[in-house]
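Feature request, filed as a ticket because there's no other form

It would be nice if the structure record came with a short human-readable summary line next to the tokens. Right now we just get the raw output. Example of a typical job, pasted below so the devs can see what we mean:
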Amino acid sequence: MIRSLSILATGIMFGAGLALSGMLNPSKVAGFLDLFGVWDPSLAFVMGGGVVLNFIGHRFVIGRGQPIYAQKFSLPTRGDLDPMLIWGSALFGVGWALAGLCPGPAIASVLLNPEDGVLFLVLMMAGLYIGRRLQAQTQAAATQ
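Raw output as currently delivered:
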């Protein structure tokens, strides 16, 4: 029960942060990404604050030695940059720039702007499905 309440509280805090920072407004995000037009640098402070808090929180949590709700930490072990990661990151960035939303704000925006939010989520899920299919085909071709 306490784990579920912790997850709920974290989700509420994340959603409130998205709303307060303007990340749920696609035009604000588009203004931030418009470097050669009317650039709105305010979201840089949102990202900077997130990076600083994550850096501090990561040090604190890892320093505990063991997570609260699991037996051990599950941290990434790969450190290389492969073409799939680079292309996936580029596609994510292009999608974010075109839509003004990324997955977290898109889910939160479903409540505020259902017609756009639901369409974005459906298309995002289709993209994830296609991406997984392509990844499976690529891996199958590599093993033959």
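Something like this underneath would help us a lot:
Residues 2-143 form one domain.
The radius of gyration is 18 Å.
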